[in-house]
Design brief:
6-stranded parallel beta sheet, Rossmann fold, 12 helices, alpha/beta, 8-stranded mixed beta sheet, disordered C terminus
């Protein structure tokens, strides 16, 4: 007779059914343990740097961040491990990179630009690593947990500096250079919170100064030049470039397009003074990055981020002015830069070349209208 095996016990049946789950949990625990051991065995802290796209402004901010870290004793490859990431203007890629950083072997993330701040804040919502942001015009409108009325209200792990340029002062300057200026063209990406803030301020300023703002919305950088051409066809006498990551990523092409129409370009995104813009009002983004890098170094040294308010670059460093008298579209019969403005410019370019003036300071204080569209320039308070 063939022997018959006894039926399996209830315990054996439960064990057999549970075995895959047990193995899965065991494997996951082993991975977590290995990750924790790897983190514990690191001999130096690790920092990830994420920027949204390659532009002079964002590149300068990142370089400033690394210099600021070095000032605090964290030198790449010597006392800190640094890995740089660039989403190259792709929001989906930025989100994927941010998730990689948040789940990776990093102690701190540095981000450059508003989209990078938002991507990293979402991926790191549980605060697994520290996060310091920079090159963000208006962090309070980014939707990441800040409170405009109280800069100490923020996720414990997330701090940094806003760098909102004085928009109303920029349009007042344009009107001084051309008192008859009536129409200004602008392309902007409404999906960017920083761009929306700049456009609020630009619209309010133009209403006050009797300027028609000729707008064209874009979804991505490939549509910017067509948008600029649209504003020129509607009679724009100058082109304004706001703090918009999508638009500023193709600023050289904007200048070239406007030049063909004999129209000057002015911005709140300083970069290379010789790129062809008539004037730029804003911050030196290397200095902006320095502030964030120093703060990151302080956090790595043990400073409690909960005690750090969301900062304003304007309280630390003044905006700067650069002027290019050789810019295409600068028709001296309609546009003329007053001598007092030339005296306030850090850089002046003319037919003889570039002239740097390190001691020059853009006159202030700036009015509340530069930062708050609800305040008119005539009623604005000093800042």
């Amino acid at each position: 007779m063939i022997p018959v095996s006894p039926p399996p016990s209830p315990f054996a049946l439960i064990l057999r059914r549970s075995l895959p789950a047990i193995l899965l949990l065991g494997g996951g625990s082993a991975i977590l343990l290995a990750t924790d051991r790897a983190a514990a065995s690191r001999t130096m802290p690790a920092v990830a740097v994420l920027q949204q796209v390659s532009t002079t402004l964002l590149d300068d901010a990142v370089e400033g961040m690394l210099e600021g870290l070095a000032e605090r004793g964290y030198v790449g490859g010597k006392t800190v491990k640094i890995r740089r990431y660039n989403a190259e203007g792709d929001l989906a890629q930025a989100n994927a990179i941010a998730r990689e950083i948040a789940g990776g072997p990093f102690d701190l993330a540095l981000t450059s630009s508003t989209p990078s701040l938002q991507a990293m804040a979402t991926a790191n919502a549980r605060g697994r690593i520290l996060h310091v942001f920079s090159a963000v015009a208006d962090p309070f409108s980014a939707g990441v947990g800040f409170d405009r009325s109280d800069p100490l209200v923020h996720p414990r792990h997330l701090v940094g500096y806003g760098s909102l340029a004085p928009v109303d002062a920029t349009f007042r300057m344009a009107r001084r250079i051309n008192p008859r200026l009536g129409r200004v063209g602008v392309a902007h990406n409404p999906s960017e919170s920083n761009s929306r803030r700049f456009m609020e301020l630009a619209r309010a300023s133009c209403r006050t100064h009797g300027i028609e703002l000729v707008e064209a919305a874009v979804e991505n950088s490939s549509g910017v030049i067509e948008a600029i051409q649209s504003t020129l066809s509607r009679g724009a006498e100058a082109v304004f470039v706001p703090g918009d990551t999508t638009v500023s990523s193709v600023i050289d092409s904007i200048v070239a397009t406007a030049a063909k129409a004999g129209v000057p370009v002015f911005t709140v995104v300083p970069g290379r003074p010789d790129r062809g813009t008539l004037f730029d009002v804003g911050f030196d983004f290397r200095e902006v990055g320095l502030l964030a890098g120093r703060l990151a170094g302080d956090l790595l040294r043990g400073k409690d981020p909960a005690t750090v308010p969301i900062g304003e670059t304007a309280r630390e460093i003044p905006p700067r002015l650069s002027i290019n008298l050789a810019a295409p579209g600068y028709d001296r019969t309609r546009w003329r830069v007053p001598d007092d403005l030339l005296g306030q410019a850090k850089v002046v370019i003319d037919e003889t070349g570039r002239h740097d003036r390190p001691s020059a300071v853009l006159a202030g204080p700036f009015s509340e209208a530069d930062y708050n569209p609800e305040e008119s320039p005539s009623k604005g308070r000093g800042r």
